[in-house]
Amino acid sequence: MSQSNPTVEPVEPALFKQETPWRQFVRTFLEDRVAVTGLMMLLLIIITAILAPWITPQNPYDLGTVDLMDSRIPPGEQTMEGYTAWLGTDGVGRDLYSAILYGLRISLMVGVVSGLIAASFGMCVGLIAAYAGGKVEAVIMRIVDLQLSLPTILVALILVAALGKGVDKIIFALVVVQWAYYARTVRGTALVERNKEYVEAAQSLGLSKTRVIFRHILPNCLAPVIVVLTVQTAHAISLEATLSFLGVGLPQTEPSLGVLIANGFQYMMSGRYWISVFPGLALLFTIVSINLVGDRIRDVLNPRLEK
Amino acid sequence: MLSFFIRRFAQAALVIAVMVVLVFFGVNVVGDPIWMLISPEMDQEAIEKTAAALGLDKPIIEQFFHFVKGLFQGDLGRSFVHGEPAIQLILSRMGATMELAVVALLMAIVFGLPLGMYAGLYPDRRSSRMIMSGSILGFSLPTFWVGLMLIMLFAVMLGWLPASGRGETVSIFGFETSLLTLNGWQHIALPAFNLALLKISLMIRLARAGTREAMLMDYVKFARAKGLKESTIIRVHVLKNIMIPIVTVLGLEFGSLVAFSVVTETIFSWPGMGKLLLEAIQRLDRPVIVAYVMVVVVLFVVINLIVDLLYSVLDPRVRITGAKA
Question: Which residues of B touch A158 (CB under 8 A)?
């Protein structure tokens, strides 16, 4: 990347000053304009989602502020409650702008929480497989292969069919379909790392197995895990929206973006496009921005692409 | 060779057996479908009668053995809702799903391969960059959202294509197909494209990477040195070499097309087995859920098996390392 614009690069200080890996990562990341745009978009989405209660005219959960008289108002018109519904209202009179921001909160939360749980679990399993080797490794990797060979949507569908609706259940289903990716990634990296000198050194010092695994090998396996985490979070958000859209994900009382889109589907044929389109755009921007950031992180962290 | 085949078959059988146990207990342990099937005014006796008729009053282990026994006789139980044998119900809808998946797969090749090869041949062109950005978008867009947008654009706003159903079908050799009528093609266009979008993006990536790699190979340099036309080199030398990995991946992706058709079929009201599965899930129609999963798992295992066996025939290295492990 830096080869393309050698004039901009401050050559002398970079040669002498020792740059920390983190700073180097940030600098290389920011060189790509598309990725920076993605990052800005993502930050904006996260901030608006967090600030939702303070920057929306209506709390879509509070039935007192939702008026059925306001249902299906086109974008930009005044509601009975007195505020302007810039994105229109849905079938039961919820302001879509408010509903989207509250929905974003749920979608992001489900995606991030399931990603983190799956990452922790998958990392442990992958590390155990790599460190134990032999039969344990063979059995674990067989399970991982089996899990990865089945399509995620199908496994998730069957799980929610068996478990029922609810945030906790959907998170569980998302963890089940995701953990194997982390396990495989961590095992691959850990297999390389465990043969390096620093691990041997730690072992010769008489450190306990757990200490070697978690304090020495694990930190060196984190780079690929972060890449998988970004990609999988986007995937999890999309999958949750799909399940909710199909009516087997989150219930109406917890309207994520997928639920909002599903609610608007029935009105679309009659030309009331906004009820489905705007939550869909919010979902789209979220997923695309995460993917842009994830793509760039992968490029930056991939040692093979270094100059 | 033979020992490799036998071991591979044994593995496939084991996977199916594990899935039978997992799916049966997974689906049957939770929720009580009896509450979905009875009307509120039924008394206790009638409820028990219904449960007994469906075999729901027996202990779960007994139900399982009954299920396994039926499995070997090709009987996966009766649908609670439709009253027909579940397997028959699934197979009757399978044709529509297969048709959709095959057309989607063809679309992936027809659109994805040329675009990907173009992007691989001229990686620095602006149009190539646009193709690649488009493929990122194709990966990012949730299938159901694209489906909605397709309906809105082509069915509601422009009115060019129908948004639901399968259209006129023609029966040949006992199979219903909508690929022989113009009306049928109009109906399949939107759902198949919706289903294909993800695979088109995948195809673009694969074809681009393969082409870029192949263009640097000695055989391409040699062909150039021989004075062959660039178009001949691309058609014969490059295309043939990139097709091997692409065909493999597409073979494996066929299973995922069938799985993702659940979403597409629901949006476009395509009368396939995916739509049937979703209806079964919503009504807790256990035999249909279990039968669907079994059919798809068998389909997956068979595809994987065929790909593996073909590989071992084409590439002896796979056999030898497989024998050592």
Answer: 23, 26-27, 289, 293
